[in-house]
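Structure tokens please, single chain.
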Amino acid sequence: MLFFDLEAYAPPDDRTASRGSLIVNPARPGHVLLGGAFYSKRFADPIPEAPRIDGLWLWHFGSEAALLGAIQRRFEEEWERQRAENARILGKPAVDLVVCGAGITKFDLPALYCRSLLHDTARAADWFELFFKARPIDLAHEASFLFPEEPVLYPKTTREMAGRLGLRERKGSSKGVWESYERGDHGAIEQRTAEELRLVLELYARLQQRVVGAARP
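Here you go.
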């Protein structure tokens, strides 16, 4: 399994041109992918108390194309690692890479595809295979059962999930990332995103406990 969380930058002139609540649009050339935090584990492995988070960031690679190359290689390695695991889920072989995060189906996976396509249009089919043929566990879609008072199934924010599970969410608005990037405070972005991924891991673990606990007599 690959857990990940990405960050991107929206230029000031483009921060009002949005159809919905998500301002960043990775199909716009100027909306640059900054990088992200990554964590890998086998299905059966527990999440440690202090998971080691890997970071892949634009300022360490010199260009967005080089950053994307590193992320693409990480995904390729994860595909191979998971197939070598030979895991079975409900009696079936788990041959597809499983990726997990909060909101990854709305932004992170589409962003990787769009930015990869902008830099190498000839490999559109490869990028689809790499990113969209993975099986996503988007925690925003998995947590509705925590809110029985709300009859409408609707994606939940990280803050809503964390609050319901007794955790604290510190990430805040994406504007903080943009301001840090404009100031050149790259360390703040790396720390913030690593903390967000640790929260995702804790949310995953607690949701898993709820599901498994409910299934036991």
